[in-house]
Amino acid sequence: MAIVLPKLPYDLDALEPHMSKQTLDFHYGKHHKTYVDKANKLLEDSELKDAPLEEIVMRASGTLFNNAAQVWNHNFFWNCLAPAPAKPDKAVQAALSKAFGSFDAFMDQFSENAVSLFGSGWTWLVRDSDGSLEIVKTSNAASPLTDHRQPLLVCDVWEHAYYIDHRNDRLRYLQNYWQLVNWDFVAANFGDAPAPRRGRATRATRATHAPHRGVH
Questions:
Q1: SS3 for the chain, per residue?
Q2: What is the structure's pLDDT at 145?
Q3: What is the pLDDT of residue 54?
Q4: First-to-last CA distance in the chain?
Q5: How far is CA 101 from CA 70, 80, 91, 112, 124, in A?
Q6: Residues near 167 by beta carbon (within 8 Å), at least 6 away in sequence
Q7: How do the domains of the chain map onto residue ranges?
Q8: What is the pLDDT along the chain (216 residues), one digit of tens a residue?
Q9: CATH architecture, domain 21-79
Q10: C-alpha angle 172-27-147 in degrees, rounded to nearest 5
Q11: Cα separation of 35 and 39, whole Å?
């Protein structure tokens, strides 16, 4: 089945003033679309051509993995944002406070991880297989999916996510990001998981890498 570029859940200008229409024009309309187009081209001669996107991410390697994972990561990222997001509900705040000490401490640690990530990549809040919560950084296209971790929230820290609006000021981008987080989406992801235990969430981070199995 062909990978499709999903319609954004809001208009291109709906995230202003925290994220400009111009940024979405380039980020969604060019970068995300290019990953979709390249992945579909690579799938033409692949045994994974009829597989769903998540299976492709789990099984592919090399260039196909990079493009398919970037499609999945971006699909997830856009849903993590909302034009007028509600505040996090009590259950989400309680889970984050239990894992990180307080809700504000979670935001501080997440931001620190995102700002300090070297090069291009993503910062995630994930649920591990034991139910604990952790903040992880992944480089380039790498995804927690390949480590069998459940993504709950993500911030894209590739330069194309923020350079039009903020140039090289990644910290300012994070400050604006928190004004857009779709806590309803985060809560829905929490609802798909067992109640978390106290996490291993500290300022230490890990990068995940694509598996070297699957088709080429």
A1: CCCCCCCCCCCCCCCCCCCCHHHHHHHHHHHHHHHHHHHHHHHCCCCCCCCCHHHHHHHCCHHHHHHHHHHHHHHHHHHCECCCCCCCCHHHHHHHHHHHCCHHHHHHHHHHHHHHCCCCEEEEEEECCCCCEEEEEEECCCCHHHHCCEEEEEEECCHHHCHHHHCCCHHHHHHHHCCCECHHHHHHHHHCCCCCCCCCCCCCCCCCCCCCCCCC
A2: 97
A3: 97
A4: 18
A5: 32, 23, 15, 16, 18
A6: none
A7: 21-79, 90-191
A8: 789 999 999 999 999 999 999 999 999 999 999 999 999 999 999 999 999 999 999 999 999 999 999 999 999 999 999 999 999 999 999 999 999 999 999 999 999 999 999 999 999 999 999 999 999 999 999 999 999 999 999 999 999 999 999 999 999 999 999 999 999 999 999 987 444 333 333 333 333 333 322 222
A9: Orthogonal Bundle (1.10)
A10: 85
A11: 6
CATH class of the domain whose range is 90-191? alpha beta
Q: Which long-range contacts (CB under 8 A, 24 or more apart) does 158-164 make?
A: 158/31, 158/120, 158/121, 158/122, 159/120, 160/26, 160/27, 160/31, 161/23, 161/27, 162/23, 164/20, 164/22, 164/23, 164/26
For residue 162, the tally of other CB atoms under 10 A from its CB is 23
